[in-house]
């Protein structure tokens, strides 16, 4: 769960078809499949949340890389007290997520949740405004006050209220079991150890999402997850897998990302100081090697300062290469007053890894940072 503001647990009989018998087949690794055995941190494809806290008041802890550990083929997310944070949020906890976004298919995890009251252990998909997308989410959650049950949920464009509680018939905290959901265009089906236990068919999410796992303590919502009393907690994950289907997959939306002007890999004619670039005069340029444009961007923003008007091109390959966008900027008043400019007309068909050149064509400016965006 990423940002769940719903705390009332309800069973929706009209849109959820629960406890339906069925199984799914676990196939061998297929093309496009994602599999993590959790032997170690996969820095290329996965990210550890660190140094921040979800904004909602009911999230009781701060994400820390210290609370994501790999040992003997397992990933352990932990929750510990950290008095460097002000009460009542003086705890640190763990979150692990893919770098990329994924669409329709089967999502599976083998895990053992924490059985501490007020603590949530989860496996889910999520995207939202921080990724320039609507809030879509599909959840498998364990409430630490009763780990003989599992909660399923989903959000579509921020609309939730789709919770269902399934009685497992065993204590999930005592052993590793496999939990999964099959996300398709018209339905979501949830599974426990290969058995179909719930299906939703109403207002299904459609936006590509990150695969995420986290464990966190609640604050002020005791009626949902029980009261958290400050205990240490641990949740273990044995493996996770995503298997795409052969049907329609929602279009991928690349997340916004930043380039600092001073992080250029090559340049001509410019000066650089305090993570800024100056002497950006006609013909001068800066280069960024192998920038991942993913599935493409349609807009570009720049933080700059200049007493005059001017322009620059965003080009690929070399300083005289294909122009994928042009920024025309106006005066900010002086060389130290920064403001934002940019273009809403970047060529979104330019994708994948590209060498990016920012080439001055007129005027003169100091540059601070750039953002590739989808708007």
UniProtKB/TrEMBL annotation:
<dbReference type="GO" id="GO:0005975">
    <property type="term" value="P:carbohydrate metabolic process"/>
</dbReference>
<dbReference type="InterPro" id="IPR044791">
    <property type="entry name" value="Beta-glucanase/XTH"/>
</dbReference>
<keyword id="KW-0326">Glycosidase</keyword>
<dbReference type="InterPro" id="IPR000757">
    <property type="entry name" value="Beta-glucanase-like"/>
</dbReference>
<feature type="domain" description="GH16">
    <location>
        <begin position="42"/>
        <end position="248"/>
    </location>
</feature>
<protein>
    <recommendedName>
        <fullName>Beta-glucanase</fullName>
        <ecNumber>3.2.1.73</ecNumber>
    </recommendedName>
</protein>
<dbReference type="InterPro" id="IPR005084">
    <property type="entry name" value="CBM6"/>
</dbReference>
<feature type="active site" description="Proton donor">
    <location>
        <position position="141"/>
    </location>
</feature>
<feature type="signal peptide">
    <location>
        <begin position="1"/>
        <end position="25"/>
    </location>
</feature>
<dbReference type="InterPro" id="IPR008264">
    <property type="entry name" value="Beta_glucanase"/>
</dbReference>
<dbReference type="Pfam" id="PF00722">
    <property type="entry name" value="Glyco_hydro_16"/>
</dbReference>
<feature type="domain" description="CBM6">
    <location>
        <begin position="226"/>
        <end position="373"/>
    </location>
</feature>
<dbReference type="Pfam" id="PF03422">
    <property type="entry name" value="CBM_6"/>
</dbReference>
<dbReference type="GO" id="GO:0030246">
    <property type="term" value="F:carbohydrate binding"/>
</dbReference>
<dbReference type="InterPro" id="IPR013320">
    <property type="entry name" value="ConA-like_dom_sf"/>
</dbReference>
<comment type="similarity">
    <text>Belongs to the glycosyl hydrolase 16 family.</text>
</comment>
<dbReference type="InterPro" id="IPR006584">
    <property type="entry name" value="Cellulose-bd_IV"/>
</dbReference>
<feature type="active site" description="Nucleophile">
    <location>
        <position position="137"/>
    </location>
</feature>
<keyword id="KW-0378">Hydrolase</keyword>
<dbReference type="GO" id="GO:0042972">
    <property type="term" value="F:licheninase activity"/>
</dbReference>
<dbReference type="InterPro" id="IPR008979">
    <property type="entry name" value="Galactose-bd-like_sf"/>
</dbReference>
<dbReference type="InterPro" id="IPR008263">
    <property type="entry name" value="GH16_AS"/>
</dbReference>
<keyword id="KW-0732">Signal</keyword>
């Amino acid at each position: 769960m990423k940002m769940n503001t719903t705390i009332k647990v309800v069973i929706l009989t009209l849109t959820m078809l629960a406890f339906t018998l069925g199984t799914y087949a676990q196939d061998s690794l297929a093309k496009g499949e994602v599999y993590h055995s959790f032997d170690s941190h996969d820095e290329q494809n996965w990210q550890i949340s660190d140094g921040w806290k979800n904004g909602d008041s009911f999230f009781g802890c701060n994400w820390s890389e210290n609370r994501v550990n790999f040992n003997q083929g397992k990933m352990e997310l932990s929750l510990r007290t950290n008095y460097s944070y002000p009460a009542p949020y003086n705890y640190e906890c763990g979150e692990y997520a893919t770098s990329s976004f994924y669409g329709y298919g089967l999502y599976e995890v083998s895990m053992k949740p924490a059985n501490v009251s007020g603590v949530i252990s989860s496996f889910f998909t999520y995207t939202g405004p921080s990724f320039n997308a609507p809030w879509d989410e599909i959840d498998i959650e364990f409430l630490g006050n009763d780990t003989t049950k599992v909660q399923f949920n989903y959000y579509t464009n921020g609309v939730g209220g789709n919770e269902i509680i399934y009685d497992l018939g065993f204590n999930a905290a005592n052993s590793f079991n496999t939990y999964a959901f099959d996300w398709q265009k018209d339905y979501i089906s949830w599974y426990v150890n290969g058995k179909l236990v719930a299906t939703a068919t109403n207002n299904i999410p459609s936006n590509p999402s990150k695969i995420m796992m986290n464990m966190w303590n609640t604050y002020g919502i005791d009626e949902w997850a029980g009261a958290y009393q400050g205990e240490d907690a641990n949740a273990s994950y044995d493996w996770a897998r995503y298997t795409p289907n052969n049907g329609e997959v929602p279009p991928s939306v690349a997340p916004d990302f930043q380039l600092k002007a001073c992080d250029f890999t090559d340049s001509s004619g410019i000066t650089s100081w305090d993570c800024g670039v100056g002497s950006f005069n006609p013909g001068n340029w800066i280069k960024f090697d192998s920038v991942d444009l993913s599935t493409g961007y349609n807009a570009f923003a720049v933080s700059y300062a200049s007493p005059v008007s001017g322009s620059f091109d965003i080009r690929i390959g070399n300083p005289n290469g294909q122009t994928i966008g042009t920024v025309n900027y106006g005066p900010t008043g002086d060389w130290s007053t920064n403001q934002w400019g940019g273009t809403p007309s970047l060529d979104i068909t330019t994708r994948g890894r590209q060498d990016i050149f920012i080439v001055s064509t007129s005027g003169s400016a100091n540059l601070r940072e750039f953002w590739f965006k989808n708007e």
